[in-house]
Amino acid sequence: MNCMHNKSEKILLHRKSPGTCVLQLTIPYALNQDRLKDILEQGAGKPVSLIITDNATRMVSVKPENNAVSVRLHWMFLHAGDEVIREIAVFLKNSRRRTPFITRFIRENRHCIKKGNGRPYRGNTQGKYFDLKKLFDSINREYFDQRIHASIEWGRKSPRRSVRRRTLGSYCRDNNIIRIHPVLDRKNTPLYYIRYVIYHEMLHSEIGEENRNGRRLMHSSEFRRRERMFSEYRKAKEWDARH
């Protein structure tokens, strides 16, 4: 990751990347802003002023302020794993430390970075084991009365890692595209689970995001209520927890 100095502000930069992922499903959990702030303060050992952004060029921005630190993070980090969050906290204490987990996380979630009208649709729907278009059409009839007009495709492959560290699905509002991670196109992935991931992203297409007190709320109470209406929701979550 490249570090550049601008006056007293140290900024981690990442190049602009194709696609604008507005909403995403990430394993294993999503933090809220207050919880992330608490974790960073514990790790950094100092007060933290945290701002969540949708910046297209600065993913992580750190500015010392007396005995505290001001931090601006792209919203993708609300879905980061423990190793990424720990590395951010360490960086707040020592900005000269290397940041391999942060760098990799940004690279693997570059589709979440705003740019223009988003990455073009490639129409890659037929996988080795699953046809996304057929699954999408079936779910659209069953749950949405065919109201969802988004496109769907398999995303690009990334370096092999465990499922628990991947973004399994995303919805890009700029170009109205749902992308499913190809790691799910495997023989041992249950049909009900990939249907759940698609359903989750279709909900994002229909419900959108909620602004509450100036914060972007991607999974509102209404979203969670609708999500539980998926017929095999509990079964999918149980499989998710085991993997």
Structural class: alpha+beta
> Would you tell me the overall average pLDDT?
79
Largest sheet: 5 strands, mixed
Strand order of the largest sheet: 1-2-5-6-4
Strands, total number:
11
Percent range for helical residues?
Answer: 25-40%
Element string (H = helix, E = strand): EEEHEEEHHHEEEHEEHH
Q: Low-confidence segments, ≥5 residues, pLDDT <50?
A: 1-29, 161-165
Through-space gap between termini = 30 Å
Number of helices: 7
Describe, in plain words, how this protein is organized in 3D.
Helix content is 33%, strand content 23%. By secondary structure, the protein is an alpha+beta fold. It folds into two domains: 2-112, no CATH class; 132-242, 2-Layer Sandwich (Zincin-like), CATH 3.30.2010. The strands form three sheets. The chain has a five-stranded mixed beta sheet, with helices on one face. Strands 3-8-9-7 form a four-stranded mixed beta sheet, covered by helices on one side. Strand 10 and strand 11 form a beta hairpin. The longest helix has 17 residues, at 191-207. It starts with a strand and ends with a helix. Mean pLDDT is 79; it is low at 1-29 and 161-165.
